[in-house]
Write a structure and sequence with these properties.
By secondary structure, the chain is an all-alpha fold. The chain is 84% helix and 0% strand. It has one domain: Ribosomal protein S20 (Methane Monooxygenase Hydroxylase, Chain G, domain 1, Up-down Bundle), CATH 1.20.58. It is elongated.
């Protein structure tokens, strides 16, 4: 356990930040799964609409440095490719 007041405060702040970051990561995973589910249904227009909404969430989380910008770009690229592969 932290011994100084400063260390106790940093431990409290880290706990709050970890919870907040976890919820953002969960939102990211949910957005990605929503697009993948839309792709599996086969409705291209619905998949594109879901992808557009999830792109905003992915970019937002990358801007906050919860995930690296390259990881965000990789997710967007793969989801986009999956939608383009639909026929």
């Amino acid at each position: 356990m932290a011994n100084s007041a400063q260390a106790r405060k940093r431990a409290r702040q880290a706990s709050v930040a970890r919870a907040h970051n976890g919820s953002l990561r969960s939102r990211l995973r949910t957005a990605i799964k929503a697009v993948q589910k839309a792709v599996l249904t086969g409705d291209k227009e619905a998949a594109q609409a879901t992808f557009k909404a999830s792109m905003c969430a992915i970019d937002s989380i990358a801007d906050k440095k919860i995930i690296h910008k390259n990881k965000a770009a990789r997710h967007k690229s793969r989801l986009s490719a999956a939608i383009k592969a639909m026929s």
